[in-house]
Hints:
Helix content is about 20%, strand content about 45%. With about 90 residues, the protein is α+β, with helices and mostly antiparallel strands.
Amino acid sequence: MELEDRGMSFEMEKPLPVNYRGRLLCHQRLDxxxxxxxxLELKSVETFHPDHVAQVISYLRxxxxxxxxxxxxxxxxxxxxxxxxVL
Length: 87
């Protein structure tokens, strides 16, 4: 709602095609893609795992974006659950 109120464009659960050697392998779903350049991956976990970071990096490459935020909502203070990932 906050993004809508600010007039920002975003897509939720954006499907991303994964190709290998010119052939479609599958689709991945990106939690949120903001303004055509920011990848948001939302989690509710005890702690971030390297797989979570790898997932965001994969989404960055698939969208040709440079900036992603990995956000964990399972923390007492939200700012402690945000990890910035830049390619």
